[in-house]
């Protein structure tokens, strides 16, 4: 579908002022400077060779040549009338040119010779003369075929390394076996057609007869990698044979015999085919050979009988550097052919104004695939092409996807929106009078302009007519003599502009159509080379691009004067971009240009550097990348263009495509993009970006029917119809019902609703504009109610009288699609229809059975006590009538309340069933039913005003609570019922000593049992270290003053102990019980404070040491060793590869990352790792966390002992134990001071932060043993607030 478009052309006509000018005989590219090295002569009248460099100037005249050297070149061979240049090659690295002459001389010309070197030097000579010569692509070997039938390989220093004789025995090298690829014999023609014929045996075998116009030439062609070379020569005057030699001079193969094979040969650089020319009586073919010498396809050059008769000289072939274009050189012209889908297209025909041309030479640029020079002996054209598709408008509603493909005298036209016909076929074939050079399609797609080398033809095209008719010629311009036509472009639908070059003028010329002809409008360029002309997407203004990247605009109203005054500079790309598009956005024109190196510009900004093709629509920039992605960019200011990342799974603006696919055209109306694969076939895709953009446009225009159909055909979630503009959707529900006329379509919309804002999840808007920011969105708190709100909105509309009859099915759907489904209301509605015997009753039942689970519908119908409705639902289901009919009959025979109880009980609605039992007055069944289904609370609420029944239910509830060990609630229930004998036991089980003893007293428990109860409770309080409560029990209920005082001393309540013993008249217990208690408590407190001090003195320095080690050598810390021999592939940086290790893999002794599938996953390993973490063994990775937690616990414990120490010191002082009080006070102060210092060291801001990896999206969190380590590392990164120390106040009496 792509054409070759001329984006640069220089015309050079050599001087004719000399009496005997030298003809141009050879040329070579200087790839370093993009300059052309030209060789002139020798001729029969002048045995002189001149070497000149064509300067990179737009003024291609004889003054543009820089003279390099000239010398006499007499022919040493008497058989030749004059010498001839067989090969001219330029070495850019040394500024040296090598010429190989037919007489046998090999000449080096140095443009910058060093001292001791000559400007022109004959470095070698072949006495027998030379037939052909060619340098290898790597410029390391020179292949020469001498007139003595010898093949020579020479190095760059012109030293012979291989010498091989071409002998007739070479034909025996290959034993060809053809399997008939592409032959008619191998095609299927039916079982009766030549069923026994061997397809490997052709009907006719070529003998290799020579063409009558063979020039007896020898030609050489290297493969692109320089590994093999092919030589086409005549063997013994009988047949032409292509020999293939390896780089070492070993013959690899020879070609099979081909009748009429001529001397042209060109090996495709990619290496798969060798091209040659075969002349037959009725046609001339370009034939292809494989490296093994077997034929592999062909194509016809499509010559008319007159052209075939006039063509009496041989042709030349030359592939370009990327193997995509084949140049065929005729005596008077050159043709450029490309291949797609195994069809060869004639894309360009290069002609010359001279009539006395005898040969045309073509030389491709070695590094720029589409740059070439085509020359004759007296003139030269330097051409630069662009491979681009000619497509029609991409602006709706004219985006028919019309594509025009040039193929010689045929123009293939396909409107892809109408018929997606793959090439080489097309919907329309337009025969042309002359080979096309360029094609343009008008804005509306109704006209077509075809530019040839001679004139412009304009055709009418009607794509809307069915069937699409062939284009009709409107008018053809007069021939533009003296001009070389380059490009054509439309402005609007009727104005055509043509850009031409001239052999006699420096600047290009601009022509404009008026009525039915072209009129000259003047020269453009101002002395600068022009690339071409183009228009905006809206086809309003004409733009011209120059080769330096400048873009000038020529406004339509000023087009009558194409001079410099009407041109204005509007943009300049940083470098030349031959493929240019423009679009008007917010009253500003955006210019996009794609360089041949893949850089895509937006004005002066570089958008991407890996673009392979692009196009623009009024809303999007669309381009493909070398990573095989199709990307969409919303159009805005050039500086604000947002390029999506390579994340097709997350971003609608990025999509994966087939490798090497290129954009042909885009059709926003059908939200489709047409791509062409490398082999040539087409693929139409519907990218989410275009589909969603179309849906959003339809929603904004309140065309919900269009948006719905787009969602339906493109499988887009229907929720976007609401979520894109929620408030607008809710306002226009009546409009939606009117637009979506089909009942099943509205059902589809309602059934796909769900409580999710898809505009923020699946289809998040990527266009950030003011309109997008103002768009209403769902309140996150109301998202859960979205479905119900929409269904209620539709019900409010559908239940109106004008919709109620026709939209009954939709009403049922709206009820069922609620969350949860409102099945009862829907079934009530069907029941009402059933009661009036409506004809749509069965249809409604069938529909609701389709939407919801039949079993659930059956149960719901029973739940509303509609047996007739349940029978109707059952009949629509797959239920067995032998099961449901007897059951429904049995229910029908029961009284109403008993029927409701039975139904609710079966449906699991025991609460309602209990109410039916109460209504029936069947209390004798209620206790058993309550116990069976644990309906105690429901029963209590039901009988809250009936004390008799309430107490019975409460007793059942109390027994139930006691059985499930809820003793507190059970004891309260027993006490409510005055069941104190059961209440005190439940209170005792709940460890509520006050309530238990109180209820035991009210229950008149015997004294012995009461004493036992009190003793048991007191002992349990002592075990719980609730000494104050225990002393109360001993004192009040057991009258044991001594034990009570001891309990108070254990709890450091010395003042209370003194008060009790003095109150009860036992002062002697102060010396017998309280003083020993003080001594014991002071000793235990002093010991406890000493342990705290020792723990701090041991753990704080160790913690600081661990942190220092981790900071200095993290890997050794996590490995538990202290060496520096850490492998180089260990890194602290998180990674998702498995080649290196992280701190986690270092510790776990496993390669990979936290995302690895080989981590320890079993619960056993997790428990073992948790035990390691709890122990915090010295040297382990958990030690730091263990030390931090231990220090925090110690400080918390010291704070808790503050009040105890205060009471202890006061008690010691009161009992004249001053020394002991001072010792306890000093120990407490030492611990407090040490805690303060430790907090300052441990919780300092300079503490080493834990290195923690990040679990990226798509990575698994660690499990098993690794999860414990991960949790420990997370805990280490958590910010810890330093604990607050409670101040200890000294007793002033101690000093």
From TrEMBL:
Where the record annotates domain ELP1 TPR, the positions are 899-1059
As for what it does, the entry says: Component of the elongator complex which is required for multiple tRNA modifications, including mcm5U (5-methoxycarbonylmethyl uridine), mcm5s2U (5-methoxycarbonylmethyl-2-thiouridine), and ncm5U (5-carbamoylmethyl uridine). The elongator complex catalyzes formation of carboxymethyluridine in the wobble base at position 34 in tRNAs.
Domain ELP1 first N-terminal beta-propeller per the UniProt entry, residue ranges: 1-367
Q: Does the record carry Glycosyltransferase as a key word?
A: no
Pathway(s) the chain acts in: tRNA modification; 5-methoxycarbonylmethyl-2-thiouridine-tRNA biosynthesis
Q: Which ranges form a coiled coil? A: none
Please list the residue ranges annotated as the ELP1 alpha-solenoid domain.
688-891
Where are the stretches annotated Disordered?
1149-1178
Where, per UniProt, does this protein localize? Cytoplasm; Nucleus
Q: Which residue spans traverse the membrane?
A: none
Q: Which species is listed as the source?
A: Delitschia confertaspora ATCC 74209
Q: Which PANTHER family match?
A: ELONGATOR COMPLEX PROTEIN 1
MF terms from GO for this chain are:
tRNA binding
May I have one GO cellular component term? cytosol
Similarity comment: family membership: Belongs to the ELP1/IKA1 family.
**Source organism phylogeny:** Eukaryota, Fungi, Dikarya, Ascomycota, Pezizomycotina
What keywords are annotated for this sequence in UniProt?
Cytoplasm, Nucleus, tRNA processing
> What protein name applies here?
Elongator complex protein 1
């Amino acid at each position: 579908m792509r054409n070759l478009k001329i984006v640069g052309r220089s015309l050079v006509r050599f001087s004719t002022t000399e009496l005997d000018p030298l003809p141009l005989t050879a040329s070579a590219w200087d790839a370093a400077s993009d300059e052309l090295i030209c060789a002139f002569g020798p001729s029969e009248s002048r045995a002189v060779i001149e070497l000149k460099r064509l300067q990179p100037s737009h003024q291609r005249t004889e003054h543009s040549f820089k003279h390099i050297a000239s010398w006499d070149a007499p022919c040493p061979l008497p058989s030749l009338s004059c010498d001839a240049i067989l090969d001219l090659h330029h070495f850019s690295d040394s500024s040296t040119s090598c010429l190989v002459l037919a007489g046998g001389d090999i000449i080096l010309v140095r443009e910058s010779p060093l001292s001791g070197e000559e400007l022109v030097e004959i470095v070698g000579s072949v006495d027998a003369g030379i037939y052909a010569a060619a340098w290898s692509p790597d410029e390391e070997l020179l292949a020469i075929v001498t007139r003595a039938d010898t093949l020579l390989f020479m190095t760059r220093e012109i030293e012979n390394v291989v010498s091989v004789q071409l002998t007739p025995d070479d034909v025996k090298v290959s034993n060809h076996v053809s399997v008939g690829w592409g032959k008619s014999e191998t095609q299927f023609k039916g079982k009766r057609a030549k069923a026994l014929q061997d397809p490997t045996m052709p009907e006719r075998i070529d003998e290799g007869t020579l063409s009558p116009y063979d020039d007896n030439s020898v030609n050489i062609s290297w493969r692109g990698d320089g590994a093999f070379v092919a030589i086409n020569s005549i063997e013994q005057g009988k047949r032409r044979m292509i020999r293939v030699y390896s780089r070492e001079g070993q013959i690899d193969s020879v070609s099979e015999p081909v009748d009429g094979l001529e001397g042209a040969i060109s090996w495709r650089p990619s290496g798969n085919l060798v091209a040659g020319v075969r002349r037959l009586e009725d046609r001339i073919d370009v034939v292809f050979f494989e490296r093994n010498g077997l034929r592999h396809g062909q194509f016809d050059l499509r010559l008319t009988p007159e052209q075939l008769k006039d063509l009496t000289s041989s042709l030349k072939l030359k592939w370009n550097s990327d193997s995509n274009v084949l140049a065929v050189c005729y005596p008077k012209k050159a043709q450029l052919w490309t291949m797609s889908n195994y069809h060869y297209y004639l894309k360009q025909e290069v002609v010359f104004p001279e009539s006395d041309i005898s040969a045309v030479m073509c030389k491709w640029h070695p590094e720029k695939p589409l740059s070439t020079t085509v020359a004759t002996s007296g003139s030269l054209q330097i051409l630069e092409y662009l491979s681009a598709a000619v497509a029609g408008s991409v602006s709706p509603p004219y985006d028919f996807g019309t594509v025009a493909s040039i193929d010689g005298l045929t123009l293939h036209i396909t409107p892809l929106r109408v018929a997606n016909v793959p090439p080489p076929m097309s919907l329309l074939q337009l025969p042309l009078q002359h080979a096309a050079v360029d094609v343009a399609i008008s804005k509306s797609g109704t006209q077509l302009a075809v530019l040839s080398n001679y004139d412009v033809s304009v055709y009418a095209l009607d794509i809307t007519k069915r069937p699409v008719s062939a284009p009709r010629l409107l008018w053809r311009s007069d021939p533009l003599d003296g001009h070389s036509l380059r490009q054509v472009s439309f402005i609007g639908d009727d104005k055509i502009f043509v850009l031409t070059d001239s052999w006699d003028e420096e600047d290009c010329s601009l022509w404009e159509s008026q009525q039915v002809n072209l009129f000259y409008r003047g020269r453009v360029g101002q002395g600068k080379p022009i690339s071409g002309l183009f228009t905006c997407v809206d086809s309003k203004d004409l733009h011209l691009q120059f080769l330096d990247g400048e873009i000038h605009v020529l406004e339509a109203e000023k087009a009558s004067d194409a001079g410099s005054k009407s041109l204005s500079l509007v943009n300049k790309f940083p470098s030349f971009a031959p493929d240019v598009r423009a679009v008007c956005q917010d009253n500003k024109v955006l210019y996009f240009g794609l360089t041949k190196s893949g850089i895509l510009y937006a004005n002066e900004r570089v958008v991407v550097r890996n673009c392979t093709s692009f196009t623009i629509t009024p809303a999007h920039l669309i381009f493909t990348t070398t990573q095989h992605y199709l990307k969409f960019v919303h159009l805005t200011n050039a500086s604000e263009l947002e390029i999506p990342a390579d994340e097709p799974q997350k971003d609608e603006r990025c999509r994966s495509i087939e490798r090497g696919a290129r954009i042909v055209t885009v059709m926003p109306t059908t939200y489709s993009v047409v791509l062409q694969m490398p082999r040539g076939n087409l693929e139409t895709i519907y990218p989410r970006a275009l589909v969603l953009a179309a849906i959003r446009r339809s929603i904004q225009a309140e065309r919900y029917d269009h948006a719905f159909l787009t969602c339906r055909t493109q499988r887009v979630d229907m929720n976007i119809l609401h979520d894109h503009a929620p408030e607008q959707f809710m306002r226009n529900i009546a409009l939606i019902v009117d637009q979506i006329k089909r009942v099943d379509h509205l059902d589809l919309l309602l059934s796909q609703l769900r409580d999710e804002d898809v505009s923020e999840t699946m289809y998040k808007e990527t266009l950030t504009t003011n309109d997008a920011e103002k768009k209403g969105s769902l309140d996150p708190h109301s998202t859960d109610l979205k479905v119900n709100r929409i269904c209620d909105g539709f019900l409010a509309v559908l239940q109106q009288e004008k919709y109620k009859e026709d939209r009954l099915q939709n009403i049922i759907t709206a009820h069922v699609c609620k969350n949860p489904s409102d099945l009862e209301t829907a079934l009530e509605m069907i029941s009402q229809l059933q009661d009036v015997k409506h004809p749509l009753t069965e249809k409604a039942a069938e529909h609701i059975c389709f939407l919801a689970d039949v079993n659930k519908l059956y149960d719901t119908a029973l739940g509303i006590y509609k047996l007739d409705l349940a029978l109707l639902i059952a009949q629509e289901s797959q239920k067995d009538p032998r099961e449901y009919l007897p059951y429904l009959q049995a229910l029908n025979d029961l009284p109403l309340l008993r029927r409701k109880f039975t139904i609710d009980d079966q449906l699991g609605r025991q609460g309602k069933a209990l109410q039916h039992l109460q209504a029936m007055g069947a209390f004798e069944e209620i206790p058993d039913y309550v116990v069976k289904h644990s309906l105690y609370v429901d029963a209590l609420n039901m009988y809250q005003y009936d004390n008799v029944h309430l107490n019975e239910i409460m007793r059942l509830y109390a027994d139930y609570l006691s059985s499930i060990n809820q003793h507190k609630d059970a004891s309260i229930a027993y006490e409510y019922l005055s069941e104190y004998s059961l209440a005190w036991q439940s209170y005792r089980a709940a460890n509520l000593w006050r309530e238990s003893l109180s209820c035991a007293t009210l229950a008149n428990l015997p004294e012995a049992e009461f004493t036992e109860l009190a003793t048991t409770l007191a002992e349990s309080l002592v075990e719980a270290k609730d000494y104050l409560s225990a002393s109360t029990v001993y004192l009040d209920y057991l009258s044991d003053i001594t034990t009570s005082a001891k309990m108070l001393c254990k709890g450091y309540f010395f003042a209370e102990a003194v008060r009790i013993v003095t109150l009860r008249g036992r002062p002697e217990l102060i010396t017998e019980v309280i003083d020993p208690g003080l001594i014991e408590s002071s000793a235990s407190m002093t010991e406890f404070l000493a342990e705290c001090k020792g723990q701090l003195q041991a753990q704080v320095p160790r913690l600081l040491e661990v942190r220092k080690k981790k900071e200095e050598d993290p890997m050794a810390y996590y490995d538990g060793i202290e060496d520096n021999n850490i492998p180089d592939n260990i890194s602290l940086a998180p990674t998702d590869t498995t080649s290196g290790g992280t701190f986690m893999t270092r510790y776990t002794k496993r390669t990979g990352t936290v995302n690895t599938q080989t981590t320890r996953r079993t619960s056993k390993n997790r428990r073992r790792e948790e035990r390691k973490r709890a122990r915090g063994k010295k040297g382990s990775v958990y030690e730091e966390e263990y030390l931090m937690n231990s220090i925090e616990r110690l400080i918390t414990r010291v704070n808790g002992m503050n009040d105890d120490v205060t009471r202890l010191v006061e008690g010691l002082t009161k009992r004249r134990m001053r020394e002991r009080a001072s010792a306890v006070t000093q120990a407490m102060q030492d611990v407090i001071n040490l805690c303060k210092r430790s907090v300052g060291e441990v919780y300092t801001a300079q503490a080493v932060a834990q290195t923690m990896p990040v679990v990226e999206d798509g990575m698994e969190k660690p499990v098993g043993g690794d999860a414990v380590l991960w949790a420990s590392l997370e805990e280490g990164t958590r910010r810890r607030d330093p604990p607050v120390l409670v101040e200890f106040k000294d007793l002033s009496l101690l000093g």
